[in-house]
Amino acid sequence: MIPETLKYSEHHEWVRKEADTAVVGISDFAQEQLGEVVYIDLPQVGDTLTAGEVMGSVESVKSISDLYAPVSGTVTEVNDALLDEPAKINEDTYNAGWMLKVTMSAPAEYDALLTAAEYEAKLD
Amino acid sequence: MAETRRTRLYEEHLARGARMTNFAGWELPLSYADTGPTAEHRAVREAAGLFDIDHMGRYAIAGAGAERFLNGVLTADVPRVPLMRARYALLPYDDGGMVDDAFLYRLEDAWWLIVNGANRDKDLRWLRAHAGAEVELREITEETYLLALQGPAARATLARVTDADLHAVPFHALARGTVAGAPTLIAATGYAGEYGYELYFPPEHAVAVWRALLAAGAVPAGLAARDSLRLEAALPLYGHEIAAEIDPITAGLEKFVRFDKGPFIGRDRLLKRVLEGTTRRLVGLEMLDAAVPREGFAVWHGEQAAGVVTSGGKSPTLDRFIALALVTPAAAAPDTPLTVDVRGTPKRAKVVPLPFYTPAYRR
Fold first, then answer.
1. Are strands A37-41 and A54-60 parallel, antiparallel or unpaired?
2. Domain ranges of chain A
3. What are phi and psi of B150, to 5 degrees?
4. DSSP-assigned letters across all residues of B271-329
5. Which residues of A touch B228 (CB under 8 A)?
6. Which CATH number fits domain A8-105: 2.40.240.10, 2.40.50.100, 1.10.10.10, 2.60.40.1230?
7. What's the gap in Å between the CA of A18 and the closest CA on chain B?
């Protein structure tokens, strides 16, 4: 499942643009690969992210994956509900499974992300 | 790279959407699509789970010298194991480190030894090297199939598909019966911290027995649940708490070492460890900061290096992150505040008594 209204990073994060804010999560492919998520480590509100750099991690029973910032900017909101119920990422990664909201400092980075079609092509 | 082997139930696992993983050279289910690790864990704690554990090694030992041989390589008091009973035991090296852990079964005409799948060849070489005259030692792994049915509903579930009187099979007893048409050795043993059975039957019945037990209400459960279940019950796992570098005293397994049973490999060194104390102890850790403590992470006691995590993960029953760790005696007392180095970040933990979860049959 790869919603066409979103954009995607090479590291399997999805991004939804709301004005100058980017809402970030991980793709359905990524959650499927991970399996049941038991722990998530996210940046905090106010942290500055740099596109392409590690911003946190997501852990399933048997594996750990780094999370990479898909865009640069300042974290304005974190989905705290995931800290208690990380399995929401498995259940509904594109909605309840959102991780962060980021005020973008370089909106051109969003434009350069993969479209749904490009991301899908990468997975094949 | 050795080839990965598949059990006879491989297609059954795939049909249930299993996420497969490589374990001990075998391609085995980590969890199933309809459930997942946490739901499978809960099914075993609350009802009954069914595990494909055919990868485990099985040997048959017979002959006039069998009892003496086994008493010399195992820590259990072998002559005192009653007929049709099972005993947990360790296989020590001369220096006290562990070759493996195992279950010993005393059957009518032979002993069976059940070992870790990863150690089938190593253990066989070790046993052969120590089996003297009048010992017939034979690997029977491929002559039998092995499933584990575990959980408080295991008895009721198995009763639906067997003619055996399961009330006559207390914990760690062995019985014979027919299960879904297969002549079966029913062992009231397991590795989940629950009452349950391990079932041995001719391999051609694998699919039929598997399906019959699922139809009787068992939930298929994978290796992820098996690991979190045994971790909560603080049951040791080969390669983590059982290893050549770890002795049974250090691992908190002294109750399985019977010093009064006569000579056995490693006895002198193990007795010395009991008398003089060990430099490390296996303890339980509960994380106070949320983080997954994983094998190999360093443990600190203030500014002092205290030890290392041997197993860790999320406890579905406690809804907390827990770990087993080998630490210095100074850091081993319950409630000692420690920190775990989680990939460069110190996370607070404290020592807690083991097991994390007391099995229902022991309460």
1. antiparallel
2. 8-105
3. -130, 140
4. HHHHHH--S-EEEEEEESSS----TT-EEEETTEEEEEEEEEEEETTTTEEEEEEEE-G
5. 61
6. 2.40.50.100
7. 31
d(CA A6, CA B241): 46
The helix/strand count (H/E) of chain A reads as: 5, 9
Q: Is B292's CB within 8 Å of A62's CB?
A: no
Task: Please check whether residue A35 touches B, CB under 8 A.
Answer: yes
Instruction: Return the DSSP state at B53.
Output: -
Give the pLDDT confidence of B144-161 residue by residue, as tens digits: 999 999 999 999 999 999
What is the radius of gyration, based on Cα positions, of chain A? Answer: 13
Cα B301 to Cα B131, B249, B298, distances in angstroms:
45, 22, 10
What span, in angstroms and rounded, lies between the C-alpha atoms of B213 and B197?
Answer: 12
A35, A38, A41 ranked by CB distance to B19: nearest: A35
pLDDT at B1 over 80: no
Q: What is the pLDDT of residues A30-84, one digit of tens each?
A: 999 999 999 999 999 999 999 999 999 999 988 889 999 999 999 999 999 998 8
- Could you tell me the pTM of the whole model? 0.92
Q: Report the interhelical angle of B37-46 vs B223-232 (nearest 10°).
A: 60
Structure tokens at B268: 């002198």
- Interface residue A81 vs chain B (CB under 8 A): no
Residue A91 and residue A75: Cα distance in Å, rounded? 24
Domains and CATH numbers, chain B: 5-55+142-232 (3.30.1360.120), 279-362 (2.40.30.110)
Rounded to two decimals, the ipTM of the complex is 0.76
What pLDDT, in 10s, does the model give residues B244-295? Answer: 999 999 999 999 999 999 999 999 999 999 999 999 999 999 999 999 999 9
Neighbour-count burial for B197-232, b at 16+ CB within 10 Å, e otherwise: bbbbbebebbeebbebbeebebbbbbbbbbbbbbbb
Tell me the per-residue pLDDT of B99-115, one tens digit each, with 9 for 90 and over.
999 999 999 999 999 99
